[in-house]
Write a structure and sequence with these properties.
60 helices, five-stranded parallel beta sheet, flat
């Protein structure tokens, strides 16, 4: 198919279809004539109420002298003209004529639906009918009997109709409004121009106005004048559709304004309309209430008008913008002068554009006129008339004297008719002339009987011509020589081809048009239906294969009975008597039972494998897939049938069309016949009679023997095991493939045969016509046809002598040649169209065949893949089941050899085998009583127990710590001496109290302690786990690492419970290394799990303590609490020092995770903040901020003390922190090229110009962007702007004093709450100002102060007399300040400023805000403050000229203009310096990193300038990150277009989501975005870290070193929550570091000495 070129359009068929359709439905010419003259300017101005339309139009009227037409004024003028009986003189004939012309219009008005243009309601249907009757019956001149010929003017007549409708309370219909408007337009001079004010208001009015001004209906112009176009074939020579007329209006201006602005303008006009001399204080409360009601009523009316405009504007906007493209939108939210200037500019531009269009049109008309004149001059002169007249006379004379005797004369005059023919061709069109000049020579060369006179007259056929080739007629002797070869013949259907346009019988087109519509609709609908069925069938097959996979997986995982045999064997094994465990015969019997169990389990596996293979074979042999593939083939065969049927119908249409041109009768359908594409018989039964007409073919598959032989041959060729099931599927596919090829070949052959039959039919018709032509042209034609037939029969029977040829006249010969030429042209055109259609049909058949084979091959491949996958699953599961049985056998043999019971349940579940440590088949024996710890005696050193015993003996002998002298003197008695000797002997035998030493190693200990190993040669026992993992026991205990020959049970139990052994067991559980003995590893596994669980509980407790900031001493009582709860945490690692060790390793895991993230990312920024308190002189908190794949991370690195406030010292502290915690050398090239930003608190030592930390960092990386913490800047800006403002200090002191007045006195507070209740206001208590959160506190205090102003003033005035004099004095002073106009107005002004700064502060505090968001908000803040310099803010405007506030008389003039200008100037000046430390262009360019700042609609230039600035500034950094800078601009444009086209709400996108989609497609621009997101907006995160550090220190209650504080802060700020914490990584890190015998550094220990007992050590001994 790749080599086959798709067929071109069948131009001849398209021409035929258009020709017959135009004869049945001739196109109506569409002409558009304007109903009004061409004015200089035509337009309309639209907009909401109070948008400024009237004001702008007045300015345009004065400036450009144009007419302004307002529908409201025109209606009033029409009604006024009717009331004043405005008349015009008129002739009676004209009156009658006008009445006749107006009747249709009146009927149209009467039938027009009533649409309201004002605020009146729509009446019911009956009233509208009455209205229509009244409009029709309305007299032109009411109650006038004058004889002079006068009548009401058009305006008066229209006003009469409006008056009647309005009196009935009905709205004026749109048709009547259009008549009034058109009548007014007709009165405007042509050279003046006009603009409509606020009209049209609805889409219906716009359409009626368009029809009235242009004369064409917009709804009908799309349906009229369209040429016929067929879907399957088109005519390239068809005329183009007429263009639509230009719109009636030149422009439509919309003054765009928001609803809020409209209401503000209305309220402003209302308030300004009051008398300014009449003061507000002089107006009574009733008048104020009345004015307020009027204002509310006006507001409701305006809102109703706005809603009416908004309901109709979407349709009008679509009409003017899309349909007519004349809409101009102007922002009307500006002052009057600026709006008028904008409107004038747009109006002038429209005038110039219209002049340019008119000038261009005149130039085009002039050029067209010149072309026509040149064409007339270049035409050749007509041929001279006398010569053809003479020729005609001689021809007539020759014809009049005609007879057989004047053949020679005719022969002499043979040449003049040819000359006359040539002259005739010159006057014909060029293409016809070329066709006539080229065709006769070719026909003469191809067919001699057509051109020779002998062939024309002789009644013999071609055989007669061949016999008479040697003779020449007189005409041939005098014929001129053949003309020279001309250009190649014109191909039928090409651009130069002139189509045959002979008249057709009228019934032929009337039949062919619906016939083709039926063909077209049937072809399209049937093709769509079949393609839908093909897609559905493919999906069904795919779903079937998917379900087959799932069902087979479930079949493989079906339950088996192997576990029952395993459980039974385990029970029998464990119930074996203990005295038989060591019997060799019993062991042999048990081994045999295990082998029998294994054979039985293997038999089950073999049986399941056979069942699975049978299931797979049954799935493959299932006929569902083959049946649906057959259905799919039938669908493709149906598509072939559709193509063949289309070709047959098209052939019949062309045949009828061209036979009609030739004047022949169309061939009957039965005679033409039809072709049927066969379908596959999917049922074994016979075909029902209903489908007997459809040919079917049986679906033949190869026999089983043939399949087996073929598969064997394939298997031998492949040299592997043959999968007969898959081979059967492939062989069946080959059979189906042959069927598809055969059906396609038959369909393609049928099409070719139909074309061949049509060509043969044409040849037969030509041969018949050639036989009939001499008979028709012979002189004896009038005697009948019977004589000719008889002569022909005689000629056939016997040869007759030659009849002399009849010489034709030149006219007859010319007519005959034209007829032959026409027939040949019809034949060529017909056959070319048919062949073109046949090529297209065969191409589509080839396409269907290829698609069918592709579909079937794809589905077959998917099915084979599924079958192979099933086989793979089967084999893998079988091997896994066999392996699990083998593992079970190994475990059983091991327990038999070691003579130990299997306590935990053995699980053999399918392909998995494991020992369930949660289920025990018999309970554990009671553990032995733990002996007291035994100390190892070394030489003559006594143990503690021995020393205690010795002490007790001494105490008995000498309670006073001395021996009596009587035992030592010579004169003592023998009894005393003997007593002393016994006591001395008892003292010498202290070894009696030691455990007795056993000199023999008991082998039973190996079963009891799996870790124990005994060496026969050296006669030593040692711990295999401790020696394997290098764990040495500390202290003076017996070392099981090196081995001991002191064979005592107490030592074994002590070592089993020791911390050193627990370390080794934990290392084994964590999988640091594996023992060579797999069986021993399995036995130790369960014990290691218990130890690992204990350590995990301890680590979780330590993490919770650090996460919540609790002191480490809480770890001891938390362990006791776990014991009471029953949580197994073990007897060791329960000290404060162990908790400190665990916290260190938990923090170390987070540090390593942070380092891995920094290594992955390409940029990072540093953030630093400092603080001092009574304990720490100066300490720095260091953060890093980075972005990876669009996600921003800001994490703490650590804290570090600074010796002195010096840039070099601070920089060294930062580098030291990075080096200690992250092993990151900031000065190295690998890390310095990643540094892009530095954020700090803004002190001179940090971001100063000359000598600062920022300066030192820029020496490492010149591209570093320094950002002063915006929160610090904002606070400093506010303080510096209001510094020295006396009025601000007054307001601030007032707020503070009011707060303390009510906070310190509950009675005043309760009195204030009671007054709030009397005034029906929700109580609010004054709040304080100041502290850390100065801005929200100040904002809240001002809001409460202004809201509760009336209640506070009233309470201060009504303080009881029983209060103290001091309280009365405070109230008087507060009241004096509260009633000052300057204070009230400045408080409102301050609240306006605070509201603006609060938004800026809120954006800065948001963690998701980027530096671009902060910068954009800062620009908005500057713009708002600049606006406040020109006019007051929203709160200040409430008290701009008020002398009362909340009903209280204010003192003073309230002039604060000088103060407010000073404050605003200082604020704007200092806010502009907020980013003075950074490059303003770079900061402004970072706005591309925030989707909130992207435009709502796509802007092609958005971001291009910013991208160039960023790439230029960070060029070395980007190059270091392997960014292709040349591709960044291109990727930005493409990604921007793709984002706008794909997502509707751009503002909700995030960069991590965009990275997940486009990271591979646009890597360079996304890397640049990561750089932008890496830049810090402030040091707020560092401030939060410093606050957390202070809180942690306050909870610890003792001094902590920076290293320990770093660990705690990392866990608190960086580690996951308690419920998400996983301690495994920390345990593994702790275990591996313990194995290397590298305890944590001493500087990470807590400085307080009493935090842990002296007896605790980092690694406790046995």
């Amino acid at each position: 198919m790749a080599d086959i070129v798709p067929p071109s359009n069948n131009n001849i068929l398209g021409h035929v279809l258009r020709a017959v359709n135009e004869k049945v439905n001739p196109p109506k010419p569409v002409t558009y004539e304007s109903q009004i003259p061409s004015f200089a300017t035509k337009g309309c101005m639209l907009g909401k109420t109070c948008s400024g339309k009237t004001s702008c139009l007045k300015i345009l009227e004065e400036a450009f002298h144009i007419e302004i037409l307002s529908i409201d004024d025109l209606v009033q003028e029409a009604i006024q003209a009717y009331l004043l009986n405005e008349t015009v003189p008129e002739n009676p004939d004209n009156i009658k004529k006008e009445v006749v012309e107006k009747e249709p219009l009146i009927n149209e008005i009467s039938n027009e639906p009533q649409e309201s243009t004002s605020e009146t309601t729509v009446q019911p249907k009956r009233e509208s009918e009455i209205e229509g009757e009244d409009l029709v019956k309305a007299p032109s001149v009411p109650k006038r009997k004058e004889t002079n010929v006068t009548r009401l003017s058009n305006r008066a007549q229209l006003g009469e109709k409006c008056e009647k409708l309005l009196k009935k309370g009905k709205s004026i219909p749109d048709v009547l409004l259009i008549q009034i408007m058109v009548d007014a337009i007709n009165q405007v001079p042509v050279e003046k121009g006009w603009i409509l004010d606020g009209f049209p208001m609805t889409l219906n009015q716009a359409k009626l106005l368009e029809e009235a001004l242009t004369g064409c209906n917009p709804d009908q112009q799309d349906r009229e004048g369209k040429n016929y176009k067929s879907t399957l074939a088109f005519d390239p020579t068809a005329p183009k559709d007429p263009s639509s007329p230009p719109p009636a209006l030149d422009f439509a201006m919309l003054l765009d304004i928001t609803d809020t602005m409209v209401l503000k303008r209305v309220v402003g006009e209302k308030t300004s309309s009051l008398d300014p001399s009449y003061g507000l204080s002089m107006r009574s409360s009733e008048q104020n209430l009345e004015d307020q009601e009027k204002t509310e009523l006006l507001r409701d009316q305006i809102q109703h008008r706005i809603l009416g405009f908004l309901d109709n504007w979407p349709e009008l906007e679509k009409w003017f913008s899309e349909k007519q493209d004349i809409l101009i939108k102007i922002n009307a939210e500006v002052d009057k002068r600026a709006l008028a200037t904008k409107v004038q500019e747009y109006f002038i531009a429209e005038l110039r554009e219209k002049e340019a269009k008119a000038k261009k049109k005149l130039e085009e008309e002039e050029a067209e006129r010149k072309k026509k004149e040149e064409a007339l001059l270049s035409e050749p002169p007509p041929p001279p008339a006398p010569e053809p007249d003479k020729g005609m006379e001689t021809e007539k004379e020759t014809k009049g004297k005609g007879g057989k005797g004047k053949i020679t004369e005719a022969g002499k005059r043979e040449s003049p008719p040819k000359e006359g023919k040539g002259k005739k061709g010159e006057t014909s069109p060029k293409d016809k002339e070329a066709g006539k000049r080229e065709s006769p020579p070719k026909e003469g060369k191809g067919k001699k009987d057509d051109t020779s006179p002998k062939g024309k007259v002789s009644p013999k056929g071609k055989g007669a011509d061949k016999k008479g080739l040697g003779k020449k007629s007189p005409v041939e002797e005098i014929s001129p020589p053949p003309p020279p070869p001309g250009p190649p013949p014109v191909k039928p259907g090409s651009e130069e081809w002139v189509y045959v346009d002979e008249p057709l019988p009228p019934e032929i087109p009337r039949y062919l048009v619906p016939f083709w519509e039926t063909i077209e609709n049937s072809y399209i609908n049937t093709t769509k239906a079949i393609l839908r069925q093909i897609r559905d069938e493919r999906h069904n097959v795919l779903y079937y294969l998917y379900d087959t996979r799932l069902n087979y997986q479930e079949f493989l995982q079906r339950p088996d009975h192997k576990q029952e045999f395993v459980s039974q064997w385990q029970d029998d094994f464990n119930n074996l008597p203990e005295d038989l465990w060591d019997d060799e015969e019993t062991k042999a019997e048990l081994h045999q039972r295990v082998n029998d169990l294994r054979d039985r389990l293997w038999d089950i596996c073999d049986t399941r494998k056979e069942e699975a293979e049978q299931e797979r074979a049954s799935i493959i042999d299932e006929s569902w897939l083959q049946d649906h593939l057959g259905i799919l083939m039938n669908h493709f065969f149906s598509l072939m049938q559709v193509e063949v049927s289309r070709f047959q119908d098209t052939k019949r249409l062309l045949q009828d069309y061209y036979r009609g041109m030739e004047g022949k009768i169309p061939i009957e359908l039965a005679k033409s016949g039809g072709t049927r594409v066969p379908l596959i018989n999917l049922e074994d039964e016979e075909v029902p009679e209903i489908y007997a007409k459809i040919p079917v073919v049986p679906r033949k598959f190869p026999s089983i023997e043939g399949i087996i032989s073929k598969t064997k041959s394939r298997g031998s060729l492949k040299r592997g095991t043959a999968d007969y099931c898959i081979d059967v599927v492939e062989l069946k596919f080959e059979a189906d493939e042959k069927t598809v090829m055969n059906v396609w070949q038959n369909a393609s052959t049928a099409v070719s045969n139909m074309v061949t039959n049509e060509i043969n039919l044409k040849k037969d018709d030509e041969s018949e016509s050639k036989l009939e032509e001499p008979k028709e042209k012979s002189p004896q034609q009038g005697k009948g046809v019977k004589t000719v037939k008889k002569k022909e029969e005689k000629k056939k029977k016997a040869p007759s002598p030659e009849i002399p040829p009849v010489i034709l006249t030149p006219e007859e010969q010319e007519v005959l040649e034209k007829q032959k030429e026409l027939k040949m042209k019809i034949r060529d055109e017909h056959l070319t169209a048919l062949q073109c259609e046949a090529q297209a049909t065969q191409f589509r058949l080839e396409l269907i065949k290829t698609k069918a084979l592709t579909y079937m091959e794809e589905l077959l491949k998917r099915a084979v893949d599924v079958y192979k996958l099933m086989d793979k699953w089967l084999g893998a599961r079988y091997l896994a089941e066999m392996a699990s049985v083998e593992k079970l056998t190994e475990v059983a043999h091991y327990h038999i050899e070691t003579s130990t019971k299997i306590q935990y349940e053995l699980i053999l579940n399918g392909e998995d085998f494991f020992i369930n440590g949660d289920v025990k088949v018999f309970p554990d024996p009671l553990p032995p009583i733990r002996p007291p710890p035994v100390e190892k005696e070394v030489n003559t050193c006594l143990t503690i127990k021995q020393l205690n015993t010795l002490r007790n003996e001494f105490m008995e002998m000498a309670p006073k710590a001395k021996i009596p002298w009587k035992y030592f003197k010579k004169g003592s008695s023998s009894v005393d001496t003997r007593r002393y000797a016994e006591e001395k002997k008892r003292l010498r035998n202290l070894d009696y109290y030691l455990p007795k030493r056993t000199n023999q190693f008991l082998k039973i200990w190996l079963k009891k302690y799996p870790w124990l190993v005994y060496d026969d040669r050296s006669d030593l026992m040692f711990c295999g786990l401790c020696r394997k993992h290098g764990v040495s026991s500390g202290g003076n205990q017996v070392s099981f690492f090196y081995g001991t020959n002191n064979f005592r049970t107490e030592f074994l139990q002590a070592h089993d419970n020791s911390e050193a052994h627990a370390k080794a067991a934990l290392a084994e559980a964590m999988g640091v290394s594996t023992l060579t003995d797999a069986a021993k590893e399995q036995m130790i596994k369960n014990r290691n799990k218990v130890i690992l669980g204990r350590i995990e509980n301890l680590f979780r407790s330590c993490h919770a303590i650090a996460k919540t900031g609790r002191p480490l001493k809480d770890f001891v009582w938390m362990c006791k609490l776990d014991d009471m709860k029953g949580v197994d945490i073990g007897p060791i690692f329960r000290s404060n020092k162990s908790a400190r060790t665990f916290i260190y390793f938990i923090a170390e895991v987070e540090r390593r995770s942070l380092k891995e993230k920094l290594e992955k990312c390409k940029f990072f920024s540093l953030i630093s903040d400092s603080g001092t308190d009574s304990i720490i002189e100066d300490i720095k908190v260091i953060y890093v901020q980075f972005a990876y794949e669009g996600k921003v991370h800001c994490q703490i690195v650590g804290v570090q003390t600074v010796d002195k406030i010096d840039p070099v010292a601070i920089k060294s502290a930062i580098e030291k922190t990075l080096e200690i915690n992250l092993q990151l050398n900031l000065s190295s090239s690998d890390w310095s090229k990643k540094l892009v930003g530095f954020g700090s608190n803004g002190t001179a030592v940090m971001v100063g110009e000359n000598n600062s930390v920022a300066r030192l960092l820029k020496e490492i990386q010149p591209c570093v962007q320094t950002v002063h913490c915006f929160a610090h800047r904002l606070e400093l800006t506010y303080q510096e702007a209001l510094q020295g403002i006396e009025l601000y200090n007054t307001v601030n002191d007032l707020l503070q004093n009011v707060y303390y007045f009510y906070h310190d006195s509950p009675s005043n507070k309760n009195a204030l709450i009671a007054i709030f209740g009397d005034l029906k206001i929700r109580p609010v208590i004054p709040s304080r100002v100041g502290s850390n959160r100065w801005l929200p506190r100040l904002q809240t205090a001002l809001q409460i102060f202004l809201k509760g102003y009336s209640a506070i003033v009233k309470q201060l005035r009504t303080i009881p007399e029983d209060r103290s004099i001091l309280e009365h004095q405070k109230a008087t002073e507060l009241l004096q300040f509260l009633l000052q106009a300057e204070v009230v107005r400045f408080a409102h002004f301050l609240l306006d400023i605070t509201n603006v700064l609060s938004i800026l502060s809120r954006v800065n505090q948001d963690r998701n805000s980027s530096i671009g968001d902060v910068f954009a908000t800062l620009q908005s803040t500057l713009g708002t403050l600049s606006m406040y310099k020109r006019r007051p803010g929203p709160k200040e405007r409430l008290t701009e000229s008020a002398t009362h506030f909340h009903g209280n008389q204010l003192t003073g003039n309230g002039n604060i203009s000088e103060v407010r200008n000073t404050v605003l100037t200082n604020l704007i000046k200092h806010l502009r310096d907020c980013f003075s430390d950074a490059n303003h262009d770079v900061v402004r360019a970072t706005t591309i990193g925030s989707f909130k700042l992207w435009p709502g609609k796509i802007d092609q230039e958005f971001g291009e300038k910013e991208i160039s600035i960023l790439t230029k500034h960070y060029e070395p950094v980007l190059e270091g990150a392997n960014v292709k800078i040349d591709e960044v601009d291109t990727e930005w444009s493409m990604m921007k277009f793709e984002i706008y086209n794909r997502f509707q709400n751009i503002r909700k996108l995030t960069w991590d989501f965009v990275n997940s989609i486009y990271s591979i497609k646009y890597p360079n621009i996304l890397t640049l975005v990561d750089l932008v997101l890496t830049l810090p907006a402030s040091s707020a995160e560092a401030e939060r870290g410093f606050s957390q550090m202070k809180l942690t220190k306050s909870q610890m209650h003792f001094k902590i070193k920076p290293e320990s504080m770093t660990d705690l802060l990392i866990i608190q700020l960086n580690s996951p929550d308690i419920n998400k914490f996983d301690p495994k990584k920390a345990i593994q890190l702790w275990n591996t570091s313990w194995q290397r015998i590298t305890p944590p550094p001493t500087d990470h220990m807590i400085a307080q000495s009493d935090c842990s007992s002296s007896s605790d050590s980092l690694y406790e001994s046995d």
